[in-house]
Input
Amino acid sequence: MDEAAKSNEETRDAPKGFSLLLVVEDDLTAKRLEEILARPEGTRFETTRVLRVEEALLRLHADRFDAMLIDLSVHEADGLDSLMRASAAASAVPIVVLTYQRDEETGLRATRAGAQDYLAKGEVTPELLTRTLIHAIERHRTLQALTQAKRKHQFLATHDTLTELPNRYWFMDQLDRLLARSQRSNTPIAVFFIDLDGFKAINDNLGHAIGDELLGDVAKRLRSSIRKNDLVARIGGDEFLAAIQGIEDEEEAFTTADVIRQAVERPYHLDGNECWISASIGIAIHPQHGEDGESLIQSADAAMYEAKNSGKNCIHMYNTELNEKAAERFEMVNGLRQAVLSGQLFLEFQPQIEVATESIVGVETLVRWEHPTRGSISPADFIPVAEETGGMVQLGEWVLRAACQAAMGWEGLNDARVAVNISGRQIHHHDFLSHLDRVLDETGIAPTRLELELTESLAASEEAVQVLDQIRERGIRVAIDDFGTGYSSLTLLRRLNVDLLKIDQSFVRGAAQTDPDGVILEGIIHIARGLGIDLIAEGVETVEEMRCLLERGCSRMQGYLFSKPVTRHELVHLATDPEAAWRIPIVDPESWSPELSQRSIQTQTRRGGARSGSLHDPDEHLYPVLKD
Ligand code: C2E
Ligand code: MG
Ligand code: MG
Output
């Protein structure tokens, strides 16, 4: 190999070169350094020479360099000053300095001033210079990677990765600082608890990817509706917190919250879909609604609950009454845990009637809570609490098992189906199907006798569609509860593969009229027929409603007209007694009158007070959970 070829080969094999900024005033030194650094053997350095640090800083703005070599050997003392400026301005570039002599003192001063390393001018050899520069570059890169990892770690610990908003931990920390400052300056702070309305339905209907995108957009709007030095954080699925400083009075807090509310309410364009979402906002003001961060957030949370209860998409200011409500809720959460364990929960059953054959074809199971001091609590009140506090899976499992056990002992109703309401928490629980199998196995109930009721928004998620298919594969029927009040589209209905639609009572109320509800009712009946899905009307209360439903072709009904939910014992009576009151409106609707209806309801209901003594058996309908 000739010399030229050898040199080419070496250049190709040599590690990639580095670009070096030389800050050297003295021409001789510069020339010597450039010669060393341009040697063909070893690592190559592309050098750019400038005379002074000021010039170097300008070059650093324009170009990228791997390292900077500064000659301080001529005027070391003033040079250190320049070095400090250079290192502060160019933290991304490691600096090696040339000093007059090699001693610890000089080295220490140079490194304190920001240099990675130093070399005494008299001892510079090609090898030493190259090695020192490479080490400085590598060390600097490692340090930078470490700093970046540390920053990332800190970001992850204090931020929510989806929206990149700070998290609760960061919010609490910053809020405490704000509170300390505001106490000194005596300026009030308002804390907003912001909760999106109906976010779950969007997630369920449009998918989690769109739900995530929506949260990202909401976060951006929240951030842009408050000032830069105010705080905003995401603390849970669709829950956000904001803290606004220097609020004059409650009025101003309301106005700011309304700006946020309106910002959230504007339409979103997500993956070709236009969607809307609103927010319920609770406000608490420091110091009157809480002394510290934790209590302010609690108060704002209670106020947000109130905003939700007053119809969503609204704003509520904390007041002391809410404190009592929050305490009540807390009591309910704790009481419910106790209730499941101590058998305060029991089931009632409401018959489902096929008017055409005058028979009870099914029975819906409805859970009840007989609270030791507060009396009967409606499932509409305690089911959402159980959902939120994680008790729903256990409660739902108990209802399912107890309902199937009860159905196995129904005298006169051996063919009737038992319908059980299933909540979102249950259907999304990983163990739901195996629990279902266990219940079928242990109670011996035929799967075809079991019907699971879900609301539209629950049934619509991709995850639920798959679970529903597996439920139906077992022969169990699936019903859509409160149909017409959710978000189902017709396409969804086809994809869902359900067996039964339960027409919501709001449409039944309008059955006798030709107003939109009546028209929708007719539409639902047509669609169900067309798709081969069974139908039942819920909440039928009057003969008039029954007649209209029959005329429109819906003959399966459930409602107070026939029977209120009753105990298991009473149900057997309704099934076996040929004189049972529910038959009256069917057999002879003409003879039916409001008084008669009243009487029939009273004899059938637990709470009517006129129940016959022989039907009463207080333990009959109790299924303590721990019985198993
Ligand atoms: P739902 O499943 O739609 O049950 C029907 C509700 O309408 C019941 O209220 C029932 O008592 C009531 N109802 C029946 N007929 C009539 C009528 O003619 N007129 C009127 N105005 N109302 C009638 P309830 O028992 O208070 O239950 C409310 C909701 O609580 C249920 O609505 C269901 O969503 C939920 N729920 C009840 N039990 C359970 C359960 O075991 N698990 C789950 N996940 N939810 C349950
Ligand atoms: Mg139901
Ligand atoms: Mg319903």
About this structure: The chain has 25 helices and 21 strands.
